[in-house]
Amino acid sequence: MDERKLPKIRCEDTWEEIRRGWESGETGASLAQRYDVGLANLWRRRASEGWRRRRPEDPAPEPVEGWERRARRALDAFLIRREETRLLAVKLAEAMRGGPLHEVPLWHAGFVLDWRASRLGPEVAAQDRDYMRKHPWTDAFWREDGGLKHLHALDEITLDANRDEWREDHGIPKGKAEEYP
User: Fold this and answer.
1) Is residue 7's pLDDT more than 80?
2) 132 touches 138 (CB < 8 A)
3) What average pLDDT is seen over the chain?
4) DSSP characters for 93-143?
5) How many angstroms separate the CA atoms of 141 and 114, rounded?
6) Residue 74 · residue 44 · CB < 8 Å
7) Distance between CA 41 and CA 138 in Å, rounded?
8) Residue 8: what pLDDT?
9) How many whole angstroms separate alpha carbon 138 and alpha carbon 132?
10) How far is CA 39 from CA 29, 43, 164, in A?
């Protein structure tokens, strides 16, 4: 009697697992053995379906100054940013509770004015308008009816009016990248 081996037919889910394994770096021989498939079939599928191995990630290059100095510099910068953020939060909180506006950084003035106008009432909003008149460009903050414009508009007005200061703060020389801001 003629006994032949029956063909091994594997479902698509099995082949997907094999493909994921091969693409993540496993050898074809180990996958063929684990899933009981022919190695030639695995190679045939790989070629016909265009399997590609994932390129391993490059290791992080060691910084010129070494990891210890890099970490120290990163920690120092983090601590400074954290302290600056906390000091800013204190100044903003004081102003948002009705305190003086003179210590609010320029770039946050629109936010504080908007917050105060919506929460502290029209009397405070009127006082804020009088205070802000010391900057002629802030006249553009208010609509014709006396109400404050939307916060986004306040931020744009502030940036446009103080473009040179912004560029200097961020190290952008005159004549370079003129479309910003």
Assistant:
1) no
2) yes
3) 92
4) HHHHTT--STTS-GGGHHHHHHHHHHHS-HHHHHHHHHHHTTSGGGGGGB-
5) 10
6) no
7) 74
8) 77
9) 6
10) 6, 6, 67
Structure tokens at 151: 């916060």
Distance CA 99, CA 108 (A): 15
Burial class (CB in 10 A: 0-12, 13-18, 19+), 76: exposed
pLDDT tens profile 58-104: 888 899 999 999 999 999 999 999 999 999 999 999 999 999 999 99
Instruction: Check if the beta carbon of residue 111 is closer than 8 Å to that of residue 122.
Output: no
In this prediction, residue 1 carries a pLDDT of: 53
User: For residues 21 and 35, what is the distance between their CA atoms, to the nearest angstrom?
Assistant: 11
Residues listed for the chain: 181
3-class SS at 147?
coil
Tell me: the pLDDT tens digits for 27-36? 999 999 999 9
Average pLDDT for 30-57: 90
> What integer pLDDT is reported at residue 109 of this predicted model?
96
